[in-house]
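Researcher: I'm comparing several assemblies side by side, and this is the next one on my list. It has 620 residues spread over two chains. Same procedure as the others: predict the full complex and return the structure.
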Amino acid sequence: MAEYRPATGDEAEFLAELIGRGLLLAGGAPGVYGRGDAFEDVRERVDALVSRAAEPDGAERLRFPPLLPRRYLESTGYLRSFPHLAGTIFAFEGSERDAAEQEQRAGRHEDWSEFQTMTDLVLVPAACYPVYPAIASRGALAPGGLTVDAGGSYVFRREPSADPARLQMFHQREMVRIGEPEAVAGWRGAWCERAVDVLRRLGVAAELEVASDPFFGRPGRMLAANQRAQELKFELTIQIASPEPTAVASFNYHQDHFAQTFGIELHDGAPVHTACLGFGLERIALGLFRAHGLDTALWPAEVKEELWDV
Amino acid sequence: MAEYRPATGDEAEFLAELIGRGLLLAGGAPGVYGRGDAFEDVRERVDALVSRAAEPDGAERLRFPPLLPRRYLESTGYLRSFPHLAGTIFAFEGSERDAAEQEQRAGRHEDWSEFQTMTDLVLVPAACYPVYPAIASRGALAPGGLTVDAGGSYVFRREPSADPARLQMFHQREMVRIGEPEAVAGWRGAWCERAVDVLRRLGVAAELEVASDPFFGRPGRMLAANQRAQELKFELTIQIASPEPTAVASFNYHQDHFAQTFGIELHDGAPVHTACLGFGLERIALGLFRAHGLDTALWPAEVKEELWDV
Protein backbone atom coordinates (compact mmCIF):
# COMPACT_ATOMS: atom_id res chain seq x y z
CA MET A 1 0.00 0.00 0.00
CA ALA A 2 1.33 3.43 -0.96
CA GLU A 3 2.69 5.71 1.72
CA TYR A 4 0.75 4.31 4.65
CA ARG A 5 1.22 6.61 7.60
CA PRO A 6 1.18 4.93 11.00
CA ALA A 7 -0.47 6.77 13.86
CA THR A 8 1.30 8.57 16.68
CA GLY A 9 0.46 7.30 20.15
CA ASP A 10 -2.11 10.05 20.71
CA GLU A 11 -3.73 9.50 17.32
CA ALA A 12 -4.01 5.74 17.88
CA GLU A 13 -5.44 6.26 21.36
CA PHE A 14 -7.98 8.80 20.08
CA LEU A 15 -9.12 6.44 17.30
CA ALA A 16 -9.52 3.58 19.81
CA GLU A 17 -11.60 5.84 22.09
CA LEU A 18 -13.80 6.96 19.19
CA ILE A 19 -14.45 3.36 18.15
CA GLY A 20 -14.93 2.24 21.77
CA ARG A 21 -17.61 4.90 22.18
CA GLY A 22 -19.35 4.01 18.91
CA LEU A 23 -18.62 7.46 17.47
CA LEU A 24 -16.70 5.75 14.67
CA LEU A 25 -17.00 2.11 13.52
CA ALA A 26 -14.16 -0.05 12.26
CA GLY A 27 -14.36 -0.02 8.46
CA GLY A 28 -11.71 -2.61 7.61
CA ALA A 29 -9.19 -0.19 6.08
CA PRO A 30 -7.19 2.80 7.36
CA GLY A 31 -9.09 6.03 6.88
CA VAL A 32 -12.38 4.20 6.14
CA TYR A 33 -14.81 4.24 9.08
CA GLY A 34 -18.50 4.12 9.74
CA ARG A 35 -19.96 6.96 11.78
CA GLY A 36 -22.27 6.52 14.73
CA ASP A 37 -25.34 8.63 15.45
CA ALA A 38 -23.69 11.03 17.91
CA PHE A 39 -20.78 11.72 15.55
CA GLU A 40 -23.08 12.19 12.58
CA ASP A 41 -25.30 14.54 14.55
CA VAL A 42 -22.31 16.81 15.26
CA ARG A 43 -21.12 16.59 11.65
CA GLU A 44 -24.55 17.59 10.36
CA ARG A 45 -24.84 20.47 12.81
CA VAL A 46 -21.45 21.84 11.75
CA ASP A 47 -22.68 21.57 8.15
CA ALA A 48 -25.77 23.58 9.13
CA LEU A 49 -23.61 26.24 10.86
CA VAL A 50 -21.63 26.71 7.65
CA SER A 51 -24.91 27.02 5.73
CA ARG A 52 -25.99 29.73 8.18
CA ALA A 53 -22.68 31.58 7.75
CA ALA A 54 -23.16 31.29 3.97
CA GLU A 55 -26.60 32.90 3.89
CA PRO A 56 -25.33 36.39 2.91
CA ASP A 57 -23.88 34.87 -0.27
CA GLY A 58 -27.29 33.97 -1.71
CA ALA A 59 -25.61 31.00 -3.34
CA GLU A 60 -27.19 28.65 -5.85
CA ARG A 61 -27.47 25.21 -4.28
CA LEU A 62 -26.11 22.44 -6.51
CA ARG A 63 -25.15 18.89 -5.63
CA PHE A 64 -22.84 16.43 -7.39
CA PRO A 65 -22.08 12.73 -6.99
CA PRO A 66 -18.46 11.86 -6.14
CA LEU A 67 -17.74 10.82 -9.76
CA LEU A 68 -15.97 12.93 -12.35
CA PRO A 69 -15.39 12.20 -16.06
CA ARG A 70 -11.74 11.18 -16.36
CA ARG A 71 -11.09 13.68 -19.16
CA TYR A 72 -11.85 16.56 -16.77
CA LEU A 73 -9.14 15.36 -14.40
CA GLU A 74 -6.81 15.02 -17.38
CA SER A 75 -7.48 18.62 -18.40
CA THR A 76 -7.09 20.34 -15.04
CA GLY A 77 -3.45 19.53 -14.29
CA TYR A 78 -4.43 17.56 -11.17
CA LEU A 79 -2.21 14.68 -12.28
CA ARG A 80 0.79 17.01 -12.49
CA SER A 81 0.25 18.34 -8.97
CA PHE A 82 -1.30 15.40 -7.10
CA PRO A 83 -0.81 12.10 -8.98
CA HIS A 84 -0.37 10.34 -5.62
CA LEU A 85 -3.81 11.42 -4.32
CA ALA A 86 -6.06 10.61 -7.30
CA GLY A 87 -8.36 7.61 -7.42
CA THR A 88 -9.39 6.19 -10.80
CA ILE A 89 -12.28 3.78 -11.37
CA PHE A 90 -11.72 0.50 -13.14
CA ALA A 91 -14.35 -2.07 -14.08
CA PHE A 92 -14.78 -5.44 -15.73
CA GLU A 93 -15.35 -5.68 -19.48
CA GLY A 94 -14.47 -9.31 -20.14
CA SER A 95 -16.15 -12.56 -21.13
CA GLU A 96 -17.93 -15.14 -18.97
CA ARG A 97 -14.69 -17.10 -18.92
CA ASP A 98 -12.78 -14.03 -17.69
CA ALA A 99 -15.45 -13.42 -15.06
CA ALA A 100 -15.06 -16.97 -13.75
CA GLU A 101 -11.28 -16.64 -13.55
CA GLN A 102 -11.53 -13.23 -11.91
CA GLU A 103 -13.97 -14.54 -9.32
CA GLN A 104 -11.81 -17.53 -8.47
CA ARG A 105 -8.73 -15.42 -7.96
CA ALA A 106 -10.67 -12.83 -5.96
CA GLY A 107 -12.15 -15.59 -3.79
CA ARG A 108 -8.59 -16.64 -2.91
CA HIS A 109 -7.65 -12.96 -2.36
CA GLU A 110 -5.12 -13.18 -5.17
CA ASP A 111 -4.40 -10.56 -7.84
CA TRP A 112 -7.33 -10.08 -10.24
CA SER A 113 -6.34 -6.61 -11.46
CA GLU A 114 -5.66 -7.81 -15.02
CA PHE A 115 -9.40 -8.27 -15.54
CA GLN A 116 -10.12 -4.66 -14.64
CA THR A 117 -10.10 -1.94 -17.31
CA MET A 118 -9.83 1.81 -16.81
CA THR A 119 -13.23 3.47 -17.17
CA ASP A 120 -14.04 7.03 -18.24
CA LEU A 121 -14.65 7.96 -14.58
CA VAL A 122 -12.50 8.97 -11.60
CA LEU A 123 -13.34 9.88 -8.03
CA VAL A 124 -13.92 13.56 -7.29
CA PRO A 125 -10.65 14.88 -5.80
CA ALA A 126 -12.07 18.21 -4.56
CA ALA A 127 -15.71 19.21 -4.30
CA CYS A 128 -15.39 22.18 -6.63
CA TYR A 129 -14.23 20.14 -9.64
CA PRO A 130 -17.67 19.11 -10.97
CA VAL A 131 -18.96 22.68 -10.51
CA TYR A 132 -16.89 24.37 -13.23
CA PRO A 133 -17.87 22.25 -16.26
CA ALA A 134 -21.52 22.22 -15.11
CA ILE A 135 -21.57 26.02 -14.89
CA ALA A 136 -19.69 26.35 -18.19
CA SER A 137 -22.31 24.14 -19.88
CA ARG A 138 -25.03 26.67 -19.05
CA GLY A 139 -23.43 29.42 -21.15
CA ALA A 140 -21.99 32.87 -20.35
CA LEU A 141 -22.62 34.31 -16.88
CA ALA A 142 -24.37 37.56 -16.06
CA PRO A 143 -22.17 40.39 -14.70
CA GLY A 144 -21.19 39.67 -11.11
CA GLY A 145 -20.93 35.95 -11.81
CA LEU A 146 -22.35 33.60 -9.21
CA THR A 147 -21.74 31.70 -6.00
CA VAL A 148 -22.40 27.98 -5.79
CA ASP A 149 -23.16 26.09 -2.59
CA ALA A 150 -21.99 22.55 -3.40
CA GLY A 151 -22.96 21.18 0.01
CA GLY A 152 -21.12 18.51 1.93
CA SER A 153 -19.61 16.51 -0.92
CA TYR A 154 -17.63 13.30 -0.60
CA VAL A 155 -14.09 13.68 -1.97
CA PHE A 156 -11.38 11.04 -2.31
CA ARG A 157 -7.72 11.30 -1.30
CA ARG A 158 -5.40 8.30 -1.54
CA GLU A 159 -3.80 8.88 1.85
CA PRO A 160 -4.11 5.69 3.90
CA SER A 161 -3.29 6.62 7.49
CA ALA A 162 -4.06 5.43 11.00
CA ASP A 163 -4.69 9.03 12.10
CA PRO A 164 -8.50 9.26 12.50
CA ALA A 165 -8.33 12.81 11.08
CA ARG A 166 -6.97 11.55 7.75
CA LEU A 167 -9.78 9.83 5.89
CA GLN A 168 -9.61 8.44 2.35
CA MET A 169 -13.10 9.79 1.65
CA PHE A 170 -14.63 12.64 3.62
CA HIS A 171 -17.19 15.42 3.40
CA GLN A 172 -15.89 18.70 2.06
CA ARG A 173 -18.47 21.42 2.80
CA GLU A 174 -17.88 23.44 -0.32
CA MET A 175 -18.65 26.92 -1.64
CA VAL A 176 -17.44 28.20 -5.02
CA ARG A 177 -17.27 31.80 -6.27
CA ILE A 178 -17.03 32.51 -9.99
CA GLY A 179 -16.83 36.07 -11.34
CA GLU A 180 -14.71 39.16 -11.81
CA PRO A 181 -11.27 38.98 -10.16
CA GLU A 182 -11.89 41.65 -7.50
CA ALA A 183 -15.25 40.19 -6.50
CA VAL A 184 -13.76 36.70 -6.21
CA ALA A 185 -10.74 37.83 -4.20
CA GLY A 186 -12.95 39.88 -1.89
CA TRP A 187 -15.30 36.95 -1.32
CA ARG A 188 -12.45 34.69 -0.32
CA GLY A 189 -11.07 37.29 2.08
CA ALA A 190 -14.45 37.78 3.74
CA TRP A 191 -14.86 34.00 4.18
CA CYS A 192 -11.46 33.65 5.87
CA GLU A 193 -12.79 35.93 8.61
CA ARG A 194 -16.24 34.32 8.77
CA ALA A 195 -14.71 30.87 9.08
CA VAL A 196 -12.44 31.80 11.98
CA ASP A 197 -15.54 33.13 13.70
CA VAL A 198 -17.56 29.93 13.07
CA LEU A 199 -14.81 27.80 14.61
CA ARG A 200 -14.08 30.07 17.58
CA ARG A 201 -17.75 30.16 18.55
CA LEU A 202 -17.52 26.37 18.80
CA GLY A 203 -14.84 26.74 21.42
CA VAL A 204 -11.86 25.66 19.34
CA ALA A 205 -8.87 27.94 18.84
CA ALA A 206 -8.58 28.14 15.06
CA GLU A 207 -5.58 29.75 13.38
CA LEU A 208 -5.63 31.15 9.86
CA GLU A 209 -2.41 30.57 7.94
CA VAL A 210 -0.96 30.95 4.48
CA ALA A 211 -0.64 27.37 3.24
CA SER A 212 0.34 25.22 0.30
CA ASP A 213 -1.04 22.01 -1.18
CA PRO A 214 0.81 18.68 -0.79
CA PHE A 215 2.26 18.83 -4.31
CA PHE A 216 3.99 15.68 -5.57
CA GLY A 217 7.74 15.20 -5.83
CA ARG A 218 10.63 17.59 -6.15
CA PRO A 219 9.02 19.92 -8.72
CA GLY A 220 6.20 20.20 -6.21
CA ARG A 221 8.41 22.17 -3.85
CA MET A 222 8.55 25.06 -6.28
CA LEU A 223 4.79 24.91 -6.89
CA ALA A 224 4.26 25.07 -3.13
CA ALA A 225 6.66 28.00 -2.74
CA ASN A 226 4.90 29.91 -5.54
CA GLN A 227 1.50 29.18 -4.03
CA ARG A 228 2.64 30.55 -0.68
CA ALA A 229 4.35 33.59 -2.19
CA GLN A 230 1.14 34.52 -4.02
CA GLU A 231 -1.02 33.68 -0.98
CA LEU A 232 -3.28 31.54 -3.17
CA LYS A 233 -4.19 29.20 -0.29
CA PHE A 234 -5.15 29.87 3.31
CA GLU A 235 -5.93 27.15 5.81
CA LEU A 236 -7.68 27.17 9.13
CA THR A 237 -5.96 24.80 11.56
CA ILE A 238 -6.99 23.42 14.93
CA GLN A 239 -5.42 20.99 17.37
CA ILE A 240 -6.87 17.48 17.16
CA ALA A 241 -4.79 14.47 18.27
CA SER A 242 -1.70 14.99 16.10
CA PRO A 243 1.44 16.73 17.34
CA GLU A 244 0.97 19.44 14.70
CA PRO A 245 -2.28 21.35 14.17
CA THR A 246 -4.59 19.87 11.51
CA ALA A 247 -6.11 21.85 8.63
CA VAL A 248 -9.92 21.82 8.88
CA ALA A 249 -10.80 24.35 6.19
CA SER A 250 -9.09 25.86 3.16
CA PHE A 251 -9.69 28.98 1.09
CA ASN A 252 -8.31 28.75 -2.39
CA TYR A 253 -7.86 31.36 -5.09
CA HIS A 254 -7.42 29.76 -8.52
CA GLN A 255 -7.05 32.96 -10.56
CA ASP A 256 -8.17 32.04 -14.11
CA HIS A 257 -7.10 28.36 -14.00
CA PHE A 258 -10.52 26.67 -13.90
CA ALA A 259 -12.31 29.34 -15.93
CA GLN A 260 -9.76 28.86 -18.74
CA THR A 261 -9.76 25.07 -18.47
CA PHE A 262 -13.52 24.74 -18.72
CA GLY A 263 -14.29 27.86 -20.77
CA ILE A 264 -16.36 29.81 -18.23
CA GLU A 265 -17.21 33.26 -19.58
CA LEU A 266 -18.96 36.44 -18.53
CA HIS A 267 -21.47 38.00 -20.93
CA ASP A 268 -19.39 41.16 -21.27
CA GLY A 269 -16.18 39.23 -21.93
CA ALA A 270 -14.57 40.40 -18.67
CA PRO A 271 -11.89 38.07 -17.23
CA VAL A 272 -13.24 35.31 -15.01
CA HIS A 273 -11.54 34.12 -11.84
CA THR A 274 -12.63 31.46 -9.37
CA ALA A 275 -12.13 30.70 -5.70
CA CYS A 276 -13.45 27.97 -3.45
CA LEU A 277 -13.57 27.11 0.18
CA GLY A 278 -14.03 23.76 1.82
CA PHE A 279 -14.68 22.84 5.44
CA GLY A 280 -13.58 19.32 6.35
CA LEU A 281 -16.69 18.30 8.27
CA GLU A 282 -15.34 15.08 9.81
CA ARG A 283 -12.18 16.87 10.97
CA ILE A 284 -14.15 19.67 12.60
CA ALA A 285 -16.36 17.10 14.36
CA LEU A 286 -13.22 15.26 15.51
CA GLY A 287 -11.74 18.53 16.76
CA LEU A 288 -14.89 19.20 18.79
CA PHE A 289 -14.85 15.71 20.34
CA ARG A 290 -11.15 16.15 21.12
CA ALA A 291 -11.63 19.61 22.66
CA HIS A 292 -14.86 19.04 24.57
CA GLY A 293 -14.87 15.29 25.29
CA LEU A 294 -16.56 12.23 23.80
CA ASP A 295 -19.95 12.80 25.46
CA THR A 296 -21.76 15.70 23.80
CA ALA A 297 -24.11 16.00 26.79
CA LEU A 298 -21.13 17.26 28.79
CA TRP A 299 -19.98 19.86 26.24
CA PRO A 300 -19.90 23.53 27.33
CA ALA A 301 -23.36 25.10 27.31
CA GLU A 302 -22.36 27.82 24.83
CA VAL A 303 -21.05 25.22 22.36
CA LYS A 304 -24.22 23.12 22.64
CA GLU A 305 -26.32 26.23 22.15
CA GLU A 306 -24.33 27.22 19.08
CA LEU A 307 -24.74 23.78 17.52
CA TRP A 308 -28.24 22.71 18.51
CA ASP A 309 -30.30 25.77 19.47
CA VAL A 310 -30.74 27.33 16.06
CA MET B 1 -17.35 1.72 -22.95
CA ALA B 2 -19.08 -1.35 -21.59
CA GLU B 3 -22.71 -1.96 -22.43
CA TYR B 4 -23.72 1.65 -22.98
CA ARG B 5 -27.47 1.82 -23.23
CA PRO B 6 -28.82 4.53 -25.50
CA ALA B 7 -32.00 6.29 -24.45
CA THR B 8 -35.45 5.75 -25.90
CA GLY B 9 -37.04 8.85 -27.37
CA ASP B 10 -39.05 9.50 -24.21
CA GLU B 11 -36.05 9.01 -21.95
CA ALA B 12 -33.90 11.39 -24.02
CA GLU B 13 -36.66 13.99 -24.09
CA PHE B 14 -37.19 13.73 -20.32
CA LEU B 15 -33.45 14.16 -19.66
CA ALA B 16 -33.33 17.22 -21.93
CA GLU B 17 -36.30 18.73 -20.09
CA LEU B 18 -34.73 18.07 -16.70
CA ILE B 19 -31.47 19.75 -17.78
CA GLY B 20 -33.32 22.59 -19.48
CA ARG B 21 -35.16 23.29 -16.24
CA GLY B 22 -31.99 23.11 -14.12
CA LEU B 23 -33.33 20.12 -12.21
CA LEU B 24 -30.30 18.15 -13.42
CA LEU B 25 -27.00 19.53 -14.72
CA ALA B 26 -24.89 18.01 -17.48
CA GLY B 27 -22.12 16.05 -15.79
CA GLY B 28 -20.01 15.10 -18.79
CA ALA B 29 -20.76 11.36 -18.72
CA PRO B 30 -23.90 9.22 -19.06
CA GLY B 31 -25.52 8.63 -15.69
CA VAL B 32 -23.44 11.35 -13.99
CA TYR B 33 -25.38 14.56 -13.38
CA GLY B 34 -25.41 17.47 -10.99
CA ARG B 35 -28.68 18.15 -9.19
CA GLY B 36 -30.32 21.54 -8.92
CA ASP B 37 -31.96 22.94 -5.81
CA ALA B 38 -35.55 21.97 -6.69
CA PHE B 39 -34.58 18.38 -7.50
CA GLU B 40 -32.48 18.07 -4.37
CA ASP B 41 -35.28 19.46 -2.25
CA VAL B 42 -37.63 16.71 -3.48
CA ARG B 43 -34.94 14.05 -3.03
CA GLU B 44 -34.34 15.15 0.55
CA ARG B 45 -38.05 15.24 1.35
CA VAL B 46 -38.51 11.71 0.04
CA ASP B 47 -35.58 10.69 2.25
CA ALA B 48 -37.35 12.30 5.22
CA LEU B 49 -40.61 10.47 4.39
CA VAL B 50 -38.76 7.14 4.48
CA SER B 51 -37.25 8.15 7.84
CA ARG B 52 -40.74 8.85 9.12
CA ALA B 53 -42.00 5.49 7.88
CA ALA B 54 -39.00 3.86 9.60
CA GLU B 55 -39.69 5.32 13.03
CA PRO B 56 -41.44 2.20 14.40
CA ASP B 57 -38.22 0.25 13.79
CA GLY B 58 -36.23 2.18 16.39
CA ALA B 59 -33.20 1.67 14.18
CA GLU B 60 -29.62 2.53 15.06
CA ARG B 61 -28.44 5.30 12.76
CA LEU B 62 -25.07 4.55 11.15
CA ARG B 63 -23.42 6.15 8.15
CA PHE B 64 -20.69 4.87 5.83
CA PRO B 65 -18.58 6.42 3.08
CA PRO B 66 -18.96 4.89 -0.40
CA LEU B 67 -15.69 2.95 -0.03
CA LEU B 68 -15.39 -0.72 0.87
CA PRO B 69 -12.23 -2.77 1.52
CA ARG B 70 -11.69 -4.89 -1.58
CA ARG B 71 -11.37 -8.10 0.44
CA TYR B 72 -14.98 -7.72 1.62
CA LEU B 73 -16.18 -7.64 -1.98
CA GLU B 74 -13.99 -10.67 -2.69
CA SER B 75 -15.60 -12.58 0.19
CA THR B 76 -19.26 -11.86 -0.51
CA GLY B 77 -19.62 -13.48 -3.93
CA TYR B 78 -20.49 -10.14 -5.55
CA LEU B 79 -17.95 -10.81 -8.30
CA ARG B 80 -19.68 -14.09 -9.13
CA SER B 81 -23.10 -12.48 -9.42
CA PHE B 82 -22.33 -8.95 -10.66
CA PRO B 83 -18.78 -8.66 -12.06
CA HIS B 84 -20.11 -6.23 -14.70
CA LEU B 85 -21.44 -3.75 -12.12
CA ALA B 86 -18.50 -3.46 -9.71
CA GLY B 87 -16.16 -0.48 -9.61
CA THR B 88 -12.62 -0.93 -8.28
CA ILE B 89 -10.32 1.90 -7.24
CA PHE B 90 -6.88 2.20 -8.74
CA ALA B 91 -4.19 4.73 -7.83
CA PHE B 92 -0.67 5.80 -8.70
CA GLU B 93 2.29 4.26 -6.89
CA GLY B 94 5.13 5.11 -9.26
CA SER B 95 8.20 7.33 -9.42
CA GLU B 96 8.53 10.98 -10.40
CA ARG B 97 9.48 9.81 -13.86
CA ASP B 98 6.33 7.68 -14.06
CA ALA B 99 4.25 10.60 -12.85
CA ALA B 100 5.64 12.82 -15.59
CA GLU B 101 4.89 10.23 -18.28
CA GLN B 102 1.42 9.59 -16.87
CA GLU B 103 0.64 13.31 -16.84
CA GLN B 104 1.83 13.81 -20.42
CA ARG B 105 -0.29 10.96 -21.72
CA ALA B 106 -3.29 12.08 -19.69
CA GLY B 107 -2.88 15.63 -20.98
CA ARG B 108 -3.18 14.24 -24.52
CA HIS B 109 -6.15 12.07 -23.41
CA GLU B 110 -4.18 8.94 -24.28
CA ASP B 111 -4.06 5.69 -22.29
CA TRP B 112 -2.33 6.10 -18.91
CA SER B 113 -3.85 3.05 -17.26
CA GLU B 114 -0.51 1.23 -16.98
CA PHE B 115 0.55 3.69 -14.27
CA GLN B 116 -2.47 2.87 -12.12
CA THR B 117 -2.33 0.04 -9.58
CA MET B 118 -5.25 -1.74 -7.94
CA THR B 119 -5.75 -0.48 -4.38
CA ASP B 120 -7.27 -2.30 -1.40
CA LEU B 121 -10.53 -0.35 -1.93
CA VAL B 122 -13.61 -0.67 -4.15
CA LEU B 123 -16.77 1.39 -4.48
CA VAL B 124 -19.72 0.36 -2.33
CA PRO B 125 -22.02 -1.68 -4.61
CA ALA B 126 -25.03 -1.71 -2.25
CA ALA B 127 -25.53 0.38 0.87
CA CYS B 128 -25.85 -2.59 3.19
CA TYR B 129 -22.38 -4.02 2.44
CA PRO B 130 -20.39 -1.91 4.93
CA VAL B 131 -22.98 -2.56 7.64
CA TYR B 132 -22.33 -6.29 8.15
CA PRO B 133 -18.58 -6.22 8.92
CA ALA B 134 -19.05 -3.14 11.13
CA ILE B 135 -21.77 -4.89 13.16
CA ALA B 136 -19.74 -8.12 13.30
CA SER B 137 -16.76 -6.18 14.69
CA ARG B 138 -18.80 -5.18 17.75
CA GLY B 139 -19.29 -8.77 18.90
CA ALA B 140 -22.32 -11.02 19.39
CA LEU B 141 -25.78 -9.42 19.26
CA ALA B 142 -28.41 -9.42 22.00
CA PRO B 143 -31.51 -11.56 21.38
CA GLY B 144 -33.75 -9.89 18.82
CA GLY B 145 -30.77 -8.59 16.87
CA LEU B 146 -30.97 -5.04 15.59
CA THR B 147 -32.10 -2.75 12.80
CA VAL B 148 -29.67 -0.32 11.16
CA ASP B 149 -30.67 2.88 9.40
CA ALA B 150 -27.82 3.43 6.94
CA GLY B 151 -29.30 6.62 5.52
CA GLY B 152 -29.11 7.78 1.95
CA SER B 153 -25.82 6.19 0.88
CA TYR B 154 -24.10 6.64 -2.45
CA VAL B 155 -23.68 3.33 -4.28
CA PHE B 156 -21.93 2.64 -7.59
CA ARG B 157 -23.21 0.61 -10.53
CA ARG B 158 -21.24 0.41 -13.77
CA GLU B 159 -24.28 0.90 -16.00
CA PRO B 160 -23.62 3.83 -18.34
CA SER B 161 -26.95 4.78 -19.88
CA ALA B 162 -28.64 7.80 -21.39
CA ASP B 163 -31.81 7.03 -19.40
CA PRO B 164 -31.89 9.70 -16.64
CA ALA B 165 -33.25 7.04 -14.25
CA ARG B 166 -30.10 4.92 -14.60
CA LEU B 167 -27.28 6.65 -12.72
CA GLN B 168 -23.79 5.29 -12.19
CA MET B 169 -23.83 6.57 -8.61
CA PHE B 170 -27.04 7.27 -6.72
CA HIS B 171 -28.50 7.48 -3.22
CA GLN B 172 -29.83 4.24 -1.85
CA ARG B 173 -31.96 5.01 1.24
CA GLU B 174 -31.09 1.90 3.17
CA MET B 175 -32.37 -0.05 6.17
CA VAL B 176 -30.88 -3.35 7.34
CA ARG B 177 -32.40 -5.95 9.68
CA ILE B 178 -30.17 -8.51 11.40
CA GLY B 179 -31.59 -11.14 13.73
CA GLU B 180 -33.53 -14.38 14.06
CA PRO B 181 -34.97 -15.71 10.77
CA GLU B 182 -38.65 -15.17 11.62
CA ALA B 183 -38.06 -11.61 12.88
CA VAL B 184 -36.09 -10.73 9.77
CA ALA B 185 -38.61 -12.22 7.36
CA GLY B 186 -41.46 -10.49 9.18
CA TRP B 187 -39.67 -7.13 9.07
CA ARG B 188 -39.17 -7.37 5.33
CA GLY B 189 -42.82 -8.29 4.78
CA ALA B 190 -44.05 -5.34 6.85
CA TRP B 191 -41.79 -2.94 4.91
CA CYS B 192 -43.13 -4.11 1.54
CA GLU B 193 -46.55 -2.87 2.66
CA ARG B 194 -45.24 0.35 4.24
CA ALA B 195 -43.29 1.21 1.10
CA VAL B 196 -46.28 0.81 -1.22
CA ASP B 197 -48.13 3.18 1.09
CA VAL B 198 -45.32 5.79 1.08
CA LEU B 199 -45.29 5.85 -2.73
CA ARG B 200 -49.05 5.85 -3.22
CA ARG B 201 -49.47 8.80 -0.86
CA LEU B 202 -47.12 10.66 -3.21
CA GLY B 203 -49.56 10.11 -6.03
CA VAL B 204 -47.61 7.50 -7.96
CA ALA B 205 -49.05 4.09 -8.70
CA ALA B 206 -46.45 1.72 -7.29
CA GLU B 207 -46.60 -2.00 -7.93
CA LEU B 208 -44.94 -4.60 -5.71
CA GLU B 209 -43.45 -7.53 -7.62
CA VAL B 210 -41.32 -10.59 -7.08
CA ALA B 211 -38.04 -9.70 -8.77
CA SER B 212 -34.53 -10.89 -9.48
CA ASP B 213 -31.17 -9.18 -9.62
CA PRO B 214 -29.38 -8.55 -12.95
CA PHE B 215 -27.04 -11.53 -12.52
CA PHE B 216 -24.17 -11.81 -15.00
CA GLY B 217 -24.02 -14.22 -17.91
CA ARG B 218 -25.69 -17.55 -18.59
CA PRO B 219 -25.21 -19.02 -15.10
CA GLY B 220 -26.96 -15.88 -13.89
CA ARG B 221 -30.23 -17.06 -15.39
CA MET B 222 -30.39 -19.93 -12.94
CA LEU B 223 -29.49 -17.67 -10.02
CA ALA B 224 -32.30 -15.33 -11.06
CA ALA B 225 -34.79 -18.20 -11.37
CA ASN B 226 -33.86 -19.50 -7.91
CA GLN B 227 -34.14 -16.03 -6.42
CA ARG B 228 -37.63 -15.64 -7.86
CA ALA B 229 -38.72 -19.12 -6.84
CA GLN B 230 -37.70 -18.44 -3.24
CA GLU B 231 -39.14 -14.90 -3.34
CA LEU B 232 -35.88 -13.50 -1.97
CA LYS B 233 -36.33 -10.17 -3.75
CA PHE B 234 -39.32 -7.87 -4.12
CA GLU B 235 -39.26 -4.63 -6.05
CA LEU B 236 -41.51 -1.63 -6.10
CA THR B 237 -41.88 -0.28 -9.63
CA ILE B 238 -43.32 2.94 -10.99
CA GLN B 239 -43.66 4.43 -14.43
CA ILE B 240 -40.98 7.06 -15.21
CA ALA B 241 -39.98 7.76 -18.83
CA SER B 242 -39.05 4.25 -19.96
CA PRO B 243 -41.43 1.94 -21.81
CA GLU B 244 -41.29 -0.54 -18.91
CA PRO B 245 -41.85 0.40 -15.26
CA THR B 246 -38.68 1.23 -13.31
CA ALA B 247 -37.73 -0.31 -9.95
CA VAL B 248 -37.52 2.40 -7.27
CA ALA B 249 -37.17 0.25 -4.16
CA SER B 250 -36.13 -3.30 -3.37
CA PHE B 251 -36.64 -5.60 -0.39
CA ASN B 252 -34.08 -8.33 -0.12
CA TYR B 253 -33.90 -11.40 2.06
CA HIS B 254 -30.34 -12.78 2.24
CA GLN B 255 -31.04 -15.75 4.53
CA ASP B 256 -27.69 -16.47 6.30
CA HIS B 257 -25.41 -15.28 3.46
CA PHE B 258 -24.01 -12.09 5.00
CA ALA B 259 -24.15 -13.35 8.59
CA GLN B 260 -22.01 -16.34 7.57
CA THR B 261 -19.66 -14.31 5.40
CA PHE B 262 -18.89 -11.75 8.10
CA GLY B 263 -19.40 -13.90 11.19
CA ILE B 264 -22.37 -12.11 12.74
CA GLU B 265 -23.63 -14.02 15.81
CA LEU B 266 -26.37 -13.85 18.40
CA HIS B 267 -25.41 -14.26 22.07
CA ASP B 268 -27.48 -17.43 22.41
CA GLY B 269 -26.02 -19.00 19.26
CA ALA B 270 -29.35 -18.86 17.39
CA PRO B 271 -29.10 -18.71 13.56
CA VAL B 272 -28.75 -15.20 12.16
CA HIS B 273 -30.44 -14.01 9.00
CA THR B 274 -30.35 -10.59 7.35
CA ALA B 275 -32.58 -8.53 5.07
CA CYS B 276 -32.28 -5.06 3.64
CA LEU B 277 -34.35 -2.55 1.80
CA GLY B 278 -33.26 0.34 -0.35
CA PHE B 279 -35.22 3.20 -1.84
CA GLY B 280 -33.63 4.73 -4.94
CA LEU B 281 -34.05 8.37 -3.99
CA GLU B 282 -33.15 9.92 -7.35
CA ARG B 283 -35.52 7.54 -9.16
CA ILE B 284 -38.40 8.35 -6.84
CA ALA B 285 -37.74 12.08 -7.33
CA LEU B 286 -37.66 11.52 -11.10
CA GLY B 287 -40.92 9.59 -10.90
CA LEU B 288 -42.55 12.48 -9.05
CA PHE B 289 -41.35 15.04 -11.62
CA ARG B 290 -42.58 12.75 -14.39
CA ALA B 291 -45.99 12.20 -12.79
CA HIS B 292 -46.69 15.70 -11.49
CA GLY B 293 -44.69 17.96 -13.82
CA LEU B 294 -41.37 19.81 -13.64
CA ASP B 295 -42.65 22.72 -11.51
CA THR B 296 -43.19 21.57 -7.93
CA ALA B 297 -45.36 24.64 -7.25
CA LEU B 298 -47.96 23.10 -9.56
CA TRP B 299 -47.96 19.64 -7.95
CA PRO B 300 -51.25 18.35 -6.46
CA ALA B 301 -51.94 19.87 -3.04
CA GLU B 302 -52.04 16.50 -1.30
CA VAL B 303 -48.61 15.55 -2.69
CA LYS B 304 -47.10 18.88 -1.61
CA GLU B 305 -48.62 18.47 1.83
CA GLU B 306 -47.24 14.97 2.15
CA LEU B 307 -43.73 16.09 1.18
CA TRP B 308 -43.39 19.51 2.78
CA ASP B 309 -45.96 19.91 5.58
CA VAL B 310 -44.45 17.58 8.13
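Model: For your comparison table: Chain B has a mean pLDDT of 97.
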